[in-house]
Design brief:
It contains 1 helix and 26 strands. By secondary structure, it is mainly beta. Strand 8 and strand 9 form a beta hairpin. The relative contact order is 0.12.
Length: about 290
């Protein structure tokens, strides 16, 4: 699958490309204040789409901008919102007009790639993505400055934001969620979870149909961890906080000494894994 923006028409390459839809819209410019930032903002919307290979994985990276992905779509659909600033209306529109969005397929991976112009104003460009994918579809999403939200997808998820929150709702598949500065929320999950944040809390809620013997790992360096599990949870548990308290509402057979900040034990038959750790914050298991 290959697509690109600009004045040239999109090309169809290979049998995997079906019904590639493209579009481009330039809005009116907005004048806004700022210290040394160019005052005039322009926005352009690009739409791409098409069929995907069997059991695909979608790869998306945004330097500045949010990424939102939803499942249950008949085929891939991407709406990219490109924003840039200039010292004049013409300069702002020329800047965003030089941004290209390409779709590239390699095996089972479909990659969304943004090509930005060079120059002093390149750092004013931000690109946010609204994506609909068919199920099942794996996701590899990275945002350096922006939030990530995933909903109703089926497949392996790897979502990482350097500065922004990560939220996964009602998605079925093993999930890795990471944020350097932001909260992590995973609601109604059914599979294994790995959630890590340097600055922010972690909230995990297992779906009623979730696996009782799942592998659940969560780490927060500065923030509390709240976990809601299925009634039949079964896991070897290691729970630790350096500055905070631990509360476990599930019956647990404690191994070793009872410590307010360090709890090791077995919940149920101990078939799964439960590892929760925070350096500054409390931990609550419901």
């Amino acid at each position: 699958m290959t697509g690109s923006t600009g004045n040239t028409k999109y090309k169809r390459i290979g049998i995997l490309v079906v019904g590639l839809a493209t579009g481009c819209l330039i809005s009116g410019c907005i004048i806004s204040g700022g210290n040394n930032s160019p005052p005039i903002q322009a926005t352009r919307i690009v739409q791409l789409g098409g069929a995907m290979p069997v059991d695909p994985t979608l790869v998306v990276q945004s330097d500045n901008g949010d990424i939102r992905a939803n499942g249950n779509a008949p085929q891939l659909r991407i709406v990219a919102t490109i924003t840039g600033r200039g010292w004049s209306e013409q300069q702002a529109q020329e800047l965003i007009g030089q941004v290209g969005i390409d779709l590239k397929t390699s095996g089972q991976k479909v990659v969304i790639q943004a090509n930005k112009p060079l120059g002093d104003l390149a750092n004013t460009i931000s690109i946010s993505y609204d994506i609909s994918v068919p199920n099942p579809c794996g996701l590899e999403l990275t945002s350096h400055n922006g939030a990530i939200r995933i909903e109703a997808t089926q497949g392996t998820i790897h979502a990482e934001s350097h500065n922004g929150s990560v939220e996964v709702i009602a998605s079925n598949g093993p999930t890795v969620a990471r944020s350097h500065n932001g909260k992590i929320t995973v609601l109604q999950f059914t599979g294994d979870i790995e959630a890590t944040t340097n600055n922010g809390g972690v909230e995990l809620v297992q779906a009623e149909s979730g696996a009782p013997a799942a592998r659940i790992h969560a780490v927060s360096h500065n923030g509390s961890i709240h976990l809601t599990t299925v009634p039949g949870l079964s896991a070897k548990a290691h729970i630790q906080t350096h500055n905070g308290s631990i509360r476990c509402d599930r019956p647990i057979s404690v191994i070793g000494e009872i410590d307010k900040q360090n709890l090791n034990g077995i919940i149920g038959s101990g078939a799964g894994e439960l590892s929760l750790e925070t350096h500054n914050g409390s931990i609550h298991i419901r």
